[in-house]
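Extended Data, panel c. Modelled sequence:
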Amino acid sequence: MVDREFNKKPLLELLREAGTGNSQCADCGTPDPEWASYKLGIFICLNCSGIHRKLPEISRVKSIHLDFWENDLLEFMKTHGNLWAKAKYEAKVPPFYYIPQSKDCLVLKEQWIRAKYEREEFVATSVCHETDSSGSREGFLWKRGRDSRQFLERRFLLSAREGVLTYYTKESKGPKAVISIKDLNAMFQTEKIRNPHGLQITYSKEGQTRNLFVYHESGKLIPKITRNYFKEGYMEKTGPKHNEAFKKRWFSLDSQERNLLYFKDPLDAFELGRVFIGSKEQGYEVQAGLPRGVRKKRWRAGLTIVTPHRKFVFVCENDREQKEWIAALNEVISRPVTA
């Protein structure tokens, strides 16, 4: 009978050993990982272990608590570990590349794991076939038309050296748009775009937020991510007098830029407007409910954003959505505004 406790104690000691990075998942940072890849020598969480199982030629996983660990596997783990793997597989991660966290979706984690271990895109001595010496990446993405629902194939060029993302509509013409990477916000939107490799790229154009909705058939050109929106969803809003008709809008909370953006539809190319979310010290707060005298016929779970200049009034479809929006807005308001 296999003794599952064999080598368990030294394995747990290795997991908790200071200076190894083993106490957090090597791929998403989840604390206290309960799985390990004995082929890569890293400790990983349950979700990431499921992705590693898809890569049997590169990674093999075992449970720290439930599986039997042979002496040679334990010795291999001792000579490697999460920090060792980070130094090797993340040596050349671009500064604009979004590294997924524990809260992020599995699609984003899988692209990160495949980029690290399967394609070895960030190994110091590797040469990625899709990236040239200047740090550029070029390929075709399917892009949704600004005024239509049709996706058309477009050529995209991402240049780390120049710090820009460029896309073209026709080969014979110049670029349709040149977007600075430092001003770029991109996030996976698998449900919104209805594609497992769907991506929403957001940037500022002439003072307005511009959205590009794209996807790639394999996802290999899509993992250059900056950050995700903190919260998205439908709410209804009224105007500054609070007696205007409530209109249903799609809202996106950008916690980094402290903007609550709103659109007529989730896949709109341009925003209709925005609400800046300042800090508590500046007089901003969010309140449950509607101001006195404001009436709503359909949705009734109201919330009010109080600013130094006016009150913005919204209603949510249900109490759960109201609580989630209030929690998300309070998270932004609780942080001081930095220059």
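The CA atoms of residues 210 and 270 lie 5 Å apart. This feature is highlighted in the accompanying rendering.
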